[in-house]
Amino acid sequence: MPHMGNLYIPFKALFQRLNIDFVIPPLNNQRTLSLATKYSPEGLCIPFKLTLGNMIEAAELGADTIIVPGGNAICRLGYYAKIQEQILREMGYNNVAVVQVGISEHKLVGLLKKIKHLSNNASWFRIISAFGFGLSKLNALDRIERVVQKVRARELVKGTANQLYSQAISAIDRADDYHTLKKVQAGYLDQLDQVTKDPLAQPLLVGVIGEFYVVLEPFSNLDVESELGKLGVEVRRTTFTSEWTKFSFFLNPLGINEKDRLHQAALPYLKRDVGGVGWESVGEKVVHAKEYDGLIHLAPFTCMPEIVAQNIMPSMKEGIPVLSITCDEQMAKAGMLTRLEAFVDLIKRKRPVANNNRPVVTI
After folding, report:
1. pLDDT tens digits, 146-205
2. Residue 223 and which of 209, 236, 276, 340 are 20 to 30 A apart at CA?
3. Helix, strand or coil for residue 191?
4. Which of 3.40.50, 1.10.10, 3.30.230, 3.30.390 is the CATH number of 203-363?
5. What percent of the chain has pLDDT above 90?
6. C-alpha to C-alpha distance for 316 and 150, rounded to whole angstroms
């Protein structure tokens, strides 16, 4: 499967438990991006390009079947598989099949049926058991990441949380049973709790919102969350793969659906689905306007749903500052850092000053 954050780890666990022969392409890097831009149509978005780069590198390693998410929604995601398969054919990879899994239509049952086919009809007990273990790894990864987001903004020695997070990812990947996984998760949560922190820190809270892929794949956004942490900002993010899985695949016993809540919040400004997560991006600003100091809105270049959301946000009555960052192969780290530093400086000035002898500065 193409890379998106740490999603390869739960799928690797699933495939190993079902004895499916698989290859994992290298994590997204500059070669992946170079391959992608060389063979992709110029106007397509960076999620298309990077996933194509993953496919090419997987084909180089001998993969003959590539699984990609898809569906009949408004986003161009539903067209990716056909176009990418055609590009692979033109490159000479005639024996590589691109299998599209319609998550939005067939939900959990459709995915499990596809896994059963790939596993040469393994028993349903083995499939559900393997899938459950993969979900446990996904939940562990996301739980640790949430804590890392808090620690980054408060640690005295910058980079400590990132180092522990990298070690935790490797340890979770190696865990081959529930006991080991639980022990690894508890151990790294304890280590993160013991990181030396600034007791006087009052970090800014910045929400990261936008298109699903560029929010979750650090290479595509130049690791914006880590860079915000270095600036003493605590990142808040609604989009986690484990949360999306919970609301997409399973019934919520409490009847609370985060997606529906965001849609309701966005109704004064946007009354229908515009594809992707554009509707949710507008709702995020409404829901978190009083909670966050600012929002970083990430959008792939040419992504129409996020262009719609980006153009609505300045006219909304919720006054929370929003920095929109367009992600593509032309984006440079230095330029992004300059914009982040300026944005953080501005929202610091906007936060009310506690000293009564000084005026409250607003922008």
Report:
1. 999 999 999 999 999 999 999 999 999 999 999 999 999 999 999 999 999 999 999 999
2. 276
3. helix
4. 3.40.50
5. 76
6. 29
